[in-house]
Every structure is written in structure tokens, then in C-alpha cells.
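Support request from a user on the community tier.

User writes: "When I paste my C-alpha cells into the form, the page sometimes reloads and wipes my input. The last time it worked, I copied everything first. Here is what I submitted, just in case something in the input itself triggers the reload:"
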């Protein structure tokens, strides 16, 4: 009887001696790690930028008071609290992506993407808004009918729009590639099969301490392994 001669491999994998072709390693995990890192970077950067933009000045103007014109400024949080709130929601969803699987991961990824959409819409609506400054003008002048004058806007609302786009991109990556990402407990799992118990060495009859340890474990030291 002639033995099978292993066929040389051209892909760098070692041949098998039983004649069965060996499957090359799947390069998908490397791509999964790249998409995972990209989603984390995009989501964290978007949330940080949205929170920063919400604390900056979005609009300036003046209010007419008895002593003249009084300058007023409206921060992003004065105009709308949606970007900051959705940035926190997006961060929570980004973390939750790794704690859930299957349908749960799909829903959390969708929530992450919708957070980005909400930030974009809220920032665009607030880019030319004067309501916050009108309220400040009324409070400053003591006249409920008072309106802001010399209104001007900054570029920070559009920074919030960019932040929402980053979070949206992270959500889309999670929706498209998240199925192959590891879960939070994945590092402790392999193929689902129980691990074999370590083979315990039989006690040495010439060592009394081994015999006592075996008795403490409920084992029969006289039984052969």
C-alpha cells in the first residue's frame, strides 16, 4: 500500500499528512478589527465634538435697554439641548454594541445611527435660530416684546453637524460590519464546547502529603489512575 504524498501548498499553509487539504486562515477578523476601530474612533470623536460645540457660542446680538445696546450671546445649549443629549446617547449605544448580540446589536447600532441623524437635524435647525437670543433680550430689557438686534451666527452649529455625521458613520459601520465584531464576553468563549478538565497526577504513595491531599479532595489514594 502506498501512502499519500502531501501536495505542496502555494499559499504558505503547512500541508496535512492525511491528504486532507488545509483551509487557509480567514482574513475576515483583520477587516473586522479595522471596522471596529474605525467605528470607535468615529463615534467617540463625534460625541466629543458635539459636546464641545454645545458649549460654544452659536449666535450674537444686542438688546435695546435704557442705557443703550447690551451685547448678548447664545451658546449651543441655549439654542437646543438635543446635540448634547444625543451625543451621550450615542456614546452609550457605542458601548452597548459590545454587550449585546444579534438582534440586540442591530437595534443598538440603529440607535447609534439615529443619534447622529438627530444631531445633524437639530444643529441645522439651530444654525439660524434667534429664539434663544430673543428670550434673553426680553429678560434683559424687561419688555416681553423686545427682540434681538444685530443678529449674527458662528460656525459652531456646523461643527455640531459634522459631529452628527461622525456618529452616523459609526452607526452605519456597526449596522454593516457589527455582526462580525466580538462581544464583551467573547474573549472567554471559544467554540462553545466545554473545556476538558486538567489531568490530575496520581498521588505518590511514598509521599504522605500527597495521600492526605487526595483524601481531602475525596479521592481514593489507593486507586490507580
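"...and here is what came back when it finally went through:"
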Amino acid at each position: 500500500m502506498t501512502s499519500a504524498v502531501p501536495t505542496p501548498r502555494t499559499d504558505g499553509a503547512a500541508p496535512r499528512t492525511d491528504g486532507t487539504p488545509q483551509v487557509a486562515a480567514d482574513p475576515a477578523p483583520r477587516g473586522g478589527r479595522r471596522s471596529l476601530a474605525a467605528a470607535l474612533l468615529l463615534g467617540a470623536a463625534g460625541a466629543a465634538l458635539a459636546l464641545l460645540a454645545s458649549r460654544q457660542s452659536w449666535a450674537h446680538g444686542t438688546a435695546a435697554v435704557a442705557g443703550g445696546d447690551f451685547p448678548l450671546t447664545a451658546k449651543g445649549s441655549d439654542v437646543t439641548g438635543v446635540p448634547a443629549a444625543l451625543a451621550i446617547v450615542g456614546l452609550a449605544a457605542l458601548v452597548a454594541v459590545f454587550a449585546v448580540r444579534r438582534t440586540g446589536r442591530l437595534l443598538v447600532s440603529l440607535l447609534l445611527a439615529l443619534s447622529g441623524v438627530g444631531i445633524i437635524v437639530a444643529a441645522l435647525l439651530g444654525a439660524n435660530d434667534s429664539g434663544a437670543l430673543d428670550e434673553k433680550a426680553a429678560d434683559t430689557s424687561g419688555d416681553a416684546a423686545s427682540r434681538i438686534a444685530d443678529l449674527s451666527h458662528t460656525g459652531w452649529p456646523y461643527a455640531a453637524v459634522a459631529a452628527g455625521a461622525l456618529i452616523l458613520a459609526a452607526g452605519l459601520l456597526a449596522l454593516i460590519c457589527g455582526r462580525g465584531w466580538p462581544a464583551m464576553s467573547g474573549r472567554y468563549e471559544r467554540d462553545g464546547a466545554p473545556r476538558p478538565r486538567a489531568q490530575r497526577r496520581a498521588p505518590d504513595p511514598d509521599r504522605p502529603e500527597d495521600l492526605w491531599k487526595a483524601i481531602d479532595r475525596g479521592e481514593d489514594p489507593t486507586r490507580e489512575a
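Agent notes: The reload is a front-end session timeout and is unrelated to the input. The chain has a mean pLDDT of 78. The first strand starts at residue 57 and ends at 65. Escalated to web team.
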